[in-house]
């Protein structure tokens, strides 16, 4: 094993050819797997599911306009005040961008 592999003779050339073919095959397998993964994920939205749906956000906004506190509304929906606030801000940004 102390000998270096060189391409000076036919055996060294054979070893290099086998290594090159193996590397090419591995690269093709990686590309194929990546493409299959991207195709499988196409159309899916990544990340965590939203804590509140659009209907819950609309109900929360109505309750807040009616004078209820953020803490009370968040408690009814089973989320934290920060989650409620973030959902309301995101929804109003989306509505403003869509409108």
UniProtKB/TrEMBL annotation:
Top-rank lineage group of the source organism: Bacteria
InterPro entries in the record: Homeodomain-like_sf, Resolv_N, Resolvase_HTH_dom
Organism: Dactylosporangium aurantiacum
Name of the molecule in the record: Helix-turn-helix domain-containing protein
PROSITE patterns linked: RECOMBINASES_3 (PS51736)
Molecular function terms from GO: DNA binding; DNA strand exchange activity
Residue ranges of domain Resolvase/invertase-type recombinase catalytic in the record: 1-45
Gene3D superfamilies linked to this entry: Homeodomain-like
